[in-house]
Specification:
This protein is globular. It has about 325 residues and is mainly α. It is built from 16 helices and two strands.
Length: about 325
């Protein structure tokens, strides 16, 4: 009989391999990069990514290793994503999704359809991940968010953000999406809209460098990017939650681990992180009393966490193989 500890990585591998096999078998033109260069080699990529999903799952099941592996795998995905974009721009068009260039700015996942009134593929993909793993898109799967994490990680202990940030980001996100909608209604040319989107993305990077790197909080993801707000709001449809048990002593060590401004004294009193929580799980390692746990419907903390890790490891491997501009 297979040892219990090996079952979750096996499930992650089978889930990844099964979904990628459907893509390799049914989708044309090929989605897997290896298949685009060498016909038939896509199956080898399916196997490699499945094994990779199992390895990531196994490593992240250890709470002491989860924060480090989350960051490593997240940054790897971002590097692969933007690396393929650079190769595509350099003339290797097989590294692009369709050969048509789109701005690699997460905000445009929602702002783009608001402007065009169509083009919902990326928005649909985003919503699918939100249904599966809630707001974990923002801490595991966003191709730009890893940059904000790198910037914020320069400060060992994040500073508490002003309370107005939690409300101000709502108004700012709505303003961004409404502005995109008005541009579409007014018939603003695509070139100007692209420049506006690119400027928004560059301004976001400036916020990472100038604000996130000084506060230790991921201000770009928390405030500037409207997708962050959509992920945390719409992520409530997912049954996954982080909860603070009654055994919490209010030692505040978890505050030092959270870069999403989701843990404050009032959040501990309420028994759950703030709405900006992305289920990253970094706070679990910091808790000396095992008082912060994942919850999924009727599953206990360890089982809920295992299910979450299996799903997020599989999604990471899928995105690594399929996500490109």
């Amino acid at each position: 009989m297979l040892p219990i500890g090996r079952i979750p990585p096996l499930v992650a591998a089978l889930l990844t391999g099964g979904l990628l096999s459907v893509v390799q078998w049914k989708v044309s033109p090929p989605m897997l990069l290896a298949e685009r260069f060498i016909p038939g080699s896509g199956w080898a990529e399916v196997v490699l990514l499945s094994v990779y999903a199992a390895l990531v799952c196994r490593a992240m099941l250890d709470p002491t290793r989860q924060p480090k592996w989350r960051r490593w795998t997240w940054r790897l995905f971002s590097a692969v994503f933007y690396g393929q974009l650079l190769l595509g721009l350099a003339g290797i068009e097989k590294c692009l999704m369709t050969g048509k260039l789109h701005l690699p700015v997460p905000a445009l996942i929602a702002a783009g359809p608001a402007y065009r009134g169509g083009g919902f593929f990326m928005l649909g993909l985003f919503l699918t991940t939100v249904i599966l793993v809630g707001p974990a898109w923002c801490s595991h799967l966003c191709y730009l968010g890893a940059w904000d994490d790198v910037a914020a990680s320069r400060v060992k202990v994040p500073r508490a953000l002003p309370r107005w940030v939690r409300l101000g980001k709502v108004a700012f996100a709505l303003a961004v999406l409404f502005a995109a909608f008005l541009m579409g209604v007014a018939g603003v040319e695509g070139t100007f809209a692209a420049v506006a989107g690119g400027t928004f993305g560059i301004a976001g990077i400036a916020i990472m460098v100038l604000v996130s790197a000084r506060t230790g909080a991921m201000v770009h993801c928390l405030f500037w990017c409207p997708i962050g707000l959509l992920a945390t709001w719409l992520g409530r449809v997912s049954p996954f939650r982080l909860v603070v048990e009654s055994s919490c002593t209010r030692c505040t060590l978890c505050f030092r681990a959270c870069r999403y401004d989701a843990l404050a004294p009032e959040d501990l009193e309420r028994g759950r992180p703030a709405a900006s929580c992305t289920l990253c799980g970094d706070c679990i390692r910091s808790c000396r009393h095992d008082s912060i746990r994942y919850r999924f419907a009727g599953l206990s903390g360890p089982r809920a966490r295992t299910l979450f890790i299996v799903l997020v490891a599989s999604l990471h491997a899928l995105f690594l193989g399929l996500a490109r501009i």
